[in-house]
Write a structure and sequence with these properties.
Layout (H helix, E strand, L loop, with lengths): L7 H13 L3 H6 L11 H21 L1 H5 L3 E3 L4 H4 L9 H19 L3 H21 L3 E2 L11 H4 L3 E2 L1 H21 L17 H18 L5 H14 L10 E3 L20 H5 E3 L1 H9 L5 H4 L6 E4 L12 E2 L2 E2 L8 H9 L4 E5 L1 H4 L53 E4 L1 H13 L7 H15 L6 H4 L11 H11 L4 H11 L23 H6 L1 H9 L30
Parallel strand pairs: 6-9
Antiparallel strand pairs: 1-5, 2-3, 4-10, 7-8, 7-9
Pfam families: SusD-like_2
Organism: Algoriphagus alkaliphilus
Protein name: Starch-binding associating with outer membrane
C-alpha cells in the first residue's frame, strides 16, 4: 500500500479478507464459495499481507513494547510491564500460513512465479515470527492436515535450527525468482504492500535474508556471514526510508484502524500507554528529534518552589493562577485548553515533601512499577483520569489513520543497522560508520525529522564509537512500534542492557512465549518433546520448563541476554 493510491472500497475488501480466508476448509464447506481449483491467486494475497501487518504491529506496539521498555502502561499493565503471560496459542499465525500455502499451490498451478515468490517470502517471515516467539515448532510436517496419517494431523516440532535454515533457503529461492519474474499476472490493488512492483518485493526478500542471517550470527556464524555477504554483493536490498515495507490503515472501523484509535474506545487504550523512562531519558539527553513526534509534553508540569508553605499545591495552576477546587482536568479539557495557549503547572517544595519530583516537560514511567498510575505524585491514580504529570503518546496515536500510522514490517533503518553490525563483525559488508549513520538518517526520515540529522549525529552519545552496543541501542530506538525486532536483538546481543522493574516476578527479562493450550491439549507428545529441549534457567520459579524465562536453541550456550 506504500505509495499506492487504492480506492477505499478495495481496502475494505482487503481487510475483510483477513477474516474471510483464514480457514480454507470453510471454502470447501460453503456451497456459495469459490472452489479452490478456481481460486484467483491474487485474491489470496491480501489476507496474508494484511494479517501479517496487523499481527506484527499488535506485538510491537503493545506488550513487546513493554518488554523492551519503549512504553509502559499505567492500567491493565500486568502483561505489558511485568510479563505476566499465560499460555499463548499460535493459531493466528498458522491460519495465515494455510492461506499462504494455498497461494503457493495456486501460483504453481497457474504458472505465476511472482505469486510463488511472494508466498515463499511471506512463509519465511511468518515461520520466522513463530520460531522467534516460541522456539521449536511444526515446520516440515506443518500445513498437511488434509493429508492422511497421524503424523500430519499431529505434526512433529522441528528444531529452531531446522526452521531458520529453511527460512534462509526459501528466501534465497524467492530472491532468484524475483530476479527474473514479471508482474504480468498481478492485479495491483491486491498487493497491498507494493502494488505488484517486483523490484520492491525483491528488496524486501533480500532484506529479510539479512535479518535472518544476522539472527544466526552467534549460533551458525559461517552461514550468517555468507548470507549477509551474498545480499550485500547483489546490491538488492531496502536502502531508503521510502522503500520501508509498511501497511496503511483504512480507519473505518476498529478492525482496520490504528490499535489505540480513540474514536472506537473513547481513548481508553490510548491513555494507558506512556513512554518508558528507559527510552525517553536517553532520547531527551541526546536531543533526539523523534521525541516530539512520538510523545506529548505533560499536561501539567511540576515546578520546584522552595517558598511554598505546603509540600505541594493542592490544585493546579493555569497560567500561574491557582485554580481553586481543581485537582486535575480531563484529558479532553487539557488538550483543548493547552491548544488554546494555556500553560498548566503545580508547585511543590522538595524540602517539605522530602524528595524531588520530575519537573521536565516530558516525563516517562520507569519500568515495572508496583503502582504506575501513581508515578510523579499523580493526584488521580487509577483509571478515572489520565496522569497529568506523565507524558502520553503524541496525539497522532489517538487517530484511526495517518501518514505516520503504519504497520512497519522491515525498514531501511533496520537494514542499515544490520549492515553496520555485520561490518563490525568483520563481514564484507561495507563501512560500519556509514551504515550506522544511514540507519539513523533513515529513521529520522521515516518520522519526518531528517532535517535534524546533522545536529543529532554529532551528539556525544550518538556520534559513532565503533561498538556493536551503540549500533544495537540506536536500532532499538528506531524500532519504535516494531518492538519485536528489538526484543529479538536484545536476546541475541544483550543490548540495550535492559533490567526489569520492582514488580517483575524475576530479575531478568523474558525470552520467549509460552506454548499454548491447543498444542498442549491436542498435540501433547510433540510439544512435550519441544519443551524438554528448552534450557530451564534459574528463573523457572516453579513454573515448569514451558515458561517465558526458558531458553530456546537460539540463545542456548551464548550467555545472552543474561
Amino acid at each position: 500500500m506504500n505509495n499506492l493510491n487504492i480506492k477505499l472500497g478495495t481496502l475494505v475488501l482487503v481487510f475483510s479478507l483477513v477474516g474471510g480466508c483464514k480457514d480454507l476448509d470453510e471454502i470447501n464447506d460453503n456451497p456459495n464459495g469459490v472452489s479452490p481449483s478456481n481460486a484467483n491467486v491474487n485474491m489470496l494475497m491480501p489476507t496474508v499481507l494484511v494479517g501479517v501487518g496487523q499481527n506484527i504491529l499488535n506485538l510491537g506496539y503493545q506488550d513487546l513494547a513493554g518488554v523492551v521498555q519503549h512504553t509502559q502502561k499505567d492500567g491493565w499493565n500486568g502483561g505489558h510491564n511485568h510479563y505476566d503471560w499465560g499460555l499463548q496459542d499460535w493459531s493466528g499465525w498458522y491460519g495465515l500460513l494455510r492461506t499462504n500455502q494455498f497461494m503457493i499451490q495456486r501460483a504453481e498451478e497457474t504458472n505465476s512465479p511472482f505469486h510463488k515468490a511472494v508466498g515463499l517470502t511471506m512463509k519465511s517471515l511468518i515461520f520466522g515470527m513463530i520460531t522467534d516467539l516460541w522456539g521449536d515448532a511444526p515446520y516440515t510436517k506443518a500445513l498437511q492436515g488434509s493429508q492422511p496419517g497421524l503424523e500430519n494431523q499431529l505434526p512433529a516440532f522441528d528444531s529452531q535450527e531446522v526452521i531458520y535454515r529453511g527460512i534462509i533457503e526459501d528466501l534465497k529461492a524467492a530472491s532468484v525468482i524475483f530476479a527474473s519474474a514479471n508482474n504480468a499476472s498481478v492485479i495491483a490493488q491486491y498487493d497491498v504492500y507494493f502494488g505488484g512492483n517486483v523490484t520492491r518485493w525483491h528488496k524486501f526478500t533480500n532484506s529479510l535474508l539479512l535479518r535472518y542471517s544476522m539472527r544466526l550470527s552467534e549460533k551458525i556464524p559461517a552461514l550468517a556471514k555468507s548470507g549477509v555477504e551474498q545480499v550485500v554483493s547483489s546490491g538488492v536490498y531496502i536502502s531508503d526510508a521510502s522503500e520501508d515495507v509498511v501497511m496503511d490503515f483504512i480507519g473505518a472501523s476498529a478492525g482496520d484502524s490504528w490499535p489505540t484509535a480513540a474514536s472506537f474506545d473513547a481513548g481508553s487504550n490510548f491513555r494507558r500507554l506512556k513512554p518508558s523512562t528507559t527510552l525517553l531519558n536517553p532520547m531527551l539527553e541526546n536531543q533526539d528529534p523523534r521525541v516530539r513526534v512520538w510523545f506529548r509534553e505533560v499536561h501539567c508540569q511540576w515546578v520546584e518552589d522552595k517558598t511554598l508553605s505546603t509540600a505541594t499545591d493542592p490544585f493546579i495552576r493555569r497560567n500561574g493562577v491557582l485554580q481553586q477546587g481543581t485537582v486535575s482536568l480531563t484529558d479532553d479539557q487539557y488538550v483543548a485548553q493547552i491548544a488554546a495557549g494555556n500553560k498548566f503547572t503545580r508547585h511543590y517544595n522538595p524540602d517539605l515533601l522530602g524528595y524531588k519530583l520530575d519537573t521536565r516537560n516530558y516525563v516517562g514511567l520507569p519500568p515495572g512499577l508496583v503502582a504506575p498510575s501513581e508515578h510523579n505524585r499523580n493526584p488521580t491514580p487509577g483509571q478515572t483520569l489520565e496522569n497529568q504529570h506523565a507524558s502520553q503518546l503524541a496525539d497522532v496515536y489517538r487517530q484511526a489513520k495517518h501518514a505516520l500510522l503504519k504497520a512497519r514490517i522491515i525498514s531501511a533503518s533496520e537494514v542499515y543497522f544490520i549492515l553496520a553490525e555485520a561490518a563490525l563483525k568483520g563481514y564484507s559488508a561495507g563501512n560500519a560508520e556509514s551504515h550506522y549513520q544511514n540507519g539513523i538518517r533513515a529513521s529520522l526520515k521515516t518520522w519526518g525529522v531528517e532535517i535534524r540529522f546533522a545536529d543529532f549525529i554529532v551528539q556525544p552519545k550518538v556520534k559513532f564509537n565503533g561498538t556493536i552496543k551503540q549500533v544495537i541501542e540506536q536500532k532499538w530506538i528506531a524500532s519504535w512500534t516494531n518492538a519485536g525486532e528489538a526484543w529479538f536483538d536484545f536476546r541475541r546481543t544483550g543490548f540495550p542492557e535492559l533490567k526489569p522493574g520492582p514488580a517483575s516476578p524475576e530479575p531478568v527479562l523474558p525470552v520467549r512465549f509460552i506454548y499454548g493450550g491447543n498444542e498442549i491439549n491436542f498435540n501433547n507428545n510433540e510439544v512435550t518433546k519441544a519443551i524438554n529441549r528448552l534450557e530451564v534457567t534459574p528463573y523457572e520459579g516453579g513454573r515448569g520448563a514451558n515458561n517465558q524465562w526458558s531458553k530456546t536453541w537460539i540463545t542456548q550456550g551464548t550467555n545472552k541476554p543474561w
